[in-house]
Write a structure and sequence with these properties.
The chain is mainly α. It is built from 13 helices and five strands. The protein is flat, with a radius of gyration of 23 Å.
C-alpha cells in the first residue's frame, strides 16, 4: 500500500526539465530558436540562417580546398562534437534524455496517468483493475490523444514551413494541399501511437532511444537501478508497486539486460520511497554506478527468477 508523500526533489526537478523541454519543442520554431525552412532552403538557429557556407563555391568562386575547410568547420566538427558529448552522457547515465527531456516520453506519462484514471489500466493491452463504465471514458481518452496528436503534427509542420504564415492559414482554413495532407497523415499516425502503441514505439520504434540503449548496455559501470537483495523480505508487503509505476512496464528489480529500455525516470524509486516511508532503512532500490552497477547483472539472475516467479 502506497502512503501519500510529497514528491521528492528529484521528481520536481524532472518535472521542470521535461515540461520546459516539451514547451521548447512546441514553441522553438515559432520563436526561431531552431527550424528548417524549406522555403529558404536552410536552417534557422536562434534567428540566424545556418548554411554549409558553400554558396560562393557553388557560384564558381573559391577552390575545393576552401570549400572543404568550410564544410568541415560549419558542419562536420559541430555535429561530431555534439554527438561525442551526448554519447559520453549516455555512456555514463543511459537513456537520461528519454526520462528527463524527451517530449514523446512526456506524452507516455501523461496518457499513462490518464488511462489509469479513466480506464483503470495504464495501457489498453493490460487487464483493467475494474471494469470501465460506458464509452464516455474511452472517448475522452481517445479524443485527448487525437488533440495532442494534432498539436504534435502542427508543431512538426512549423519546423518545415514559416510558422508566422502557418497560423493565419490554419485559422482561415487556407492551408495548401501538401500541408493539409501532412497534418491529416501525421495526426492519424500520432493518434494511433499515443492511444495504442506509445510504449512499443519507445521500446522498438525510436531510433534515438535504441541508440541510447545500445551505448548504455556497452558500459557495465553505467548508472542503473539496483535492488538490495539482502532486504528482499521488505518486498513481501508490497504488490510490485515499483513495476506498476514504471512507465515502460519493466521489471524494476530485474537484471540490467532485462531493463534494456529503462529511461532512468526514477518513478520506481519514488514509489519505493512511498512504500518504505515507515522503514528506517529507506527504499530498497537505488541508482548505482561503477562496481555496484556491475554487480546488478553479476549477482542477480538466480534471485530474479525466483522473484519474477513470485510476482506472477
Amino acid at each position: 500500500m502506497i502512503n501519500a508523500q510529497p514528491k521528492p526533489r528529484r521528481e520536481k526537478i524532472r518535472m521542470l526539465t521535461r515540461t520546459s523541454f516539451f514547451l521548447l519543442f512546441i514553441f522553438a520554431p515559432f520563436l526561431d530558436i531552431f527550424r528548417l525552412d524549406l522555403t529558404l532552403g536552410h536552417f534557422i538557429i536562434f534567428g540566424q540562417p545556418w548554411t554549409l557556407g558553400l554558396e560562393s563555391f557553388q557560384q564558381g568562386q573559391g577552390d575545393a580546398t576552401s570549400a572543404a575547410i568550410t564544410l568541415l568547420t560549419h558542419a562536420f566538427l559541430p555535429v561530431l562534437s555534439f554527438i561525442v558529448i551526448i554519447a559520453i552522457i549516455i555512456w555514463k547515465m543511459g537513456r537520461i534524455y528519454c526520462g528527463w527531456l524527451c517530449p514523446h516520453f512526456s506524452i507516455v506519462e501523461i496518457f499513462n496517468d490518464m488511462m489509469l484514471k479513466y480506464l483503470n489500466r495504464v495501457t489498453i493491452w493490460e487487464k483493467a483493475s475494474k471494469k470501465t463504465r460506458g464509452v464516455l471514458p474511452w472517448m475522452l481518452v481517445f479524443f485527448s490523444c487525437a488533440l495532442m496528436a494534432f498539436v504534435w503534427a502542427f508543431s512538426l509542420l512549423s519546423y518545415l514551413l514559416p510558422p508566422k504564415e502557418l497560423i493565419p492559414d490554419l485559422l482561415h482554413f487556407e492551408l495548401g494541399a501538401g500541408s493539409t495532407r501532412f497534418l491529416l497523415v501525421a495526426t492519424t499516425i500520432f493518434t494511433l501511437d499515443f492511444f495504442f502503441a506509445r510504449h512499443l514505439f519507445c521500446k522498438f520504434g525510436c531510433a534515438v532511444g535504441v541508440f541510447q540503449s545500445l551505448i548504455w548496455m556497452g558500459n557495465s559501470k553505467a548508472m542503473v537501478v539496483s535492488f538490495d537483495k539482502s532486504r528482499a523480505h521488505s518486498c513481501q508487503s508490497c504488490d510490485r508497486e515499483c513495476d506498476r509505476a514504471c512507465p515502460m512496464r519493466l521489471h524494476t528489480r530485474s537484471i540490467k539486460r532485462a531493463k534494456f529500455t529503462c529511461t532512468q525516470c526514477g518513478q520506481c524509486l519514488n514509489t519505493c520511497d512511498q512504500v518504505q516511508a515507515d522503514n528506517p532503512d529507506g527504499r530498497i532500490i537505488n541508482w548505482v554506478t561503477d562496481k555496484k552497477a556491475q554487480d546488478v547483472d553479476r549477482n542477480a539472475p538466480a534471485f530474479d527468477k525466483k522473484l519474477l516467479k513470485k510476482d506472477k
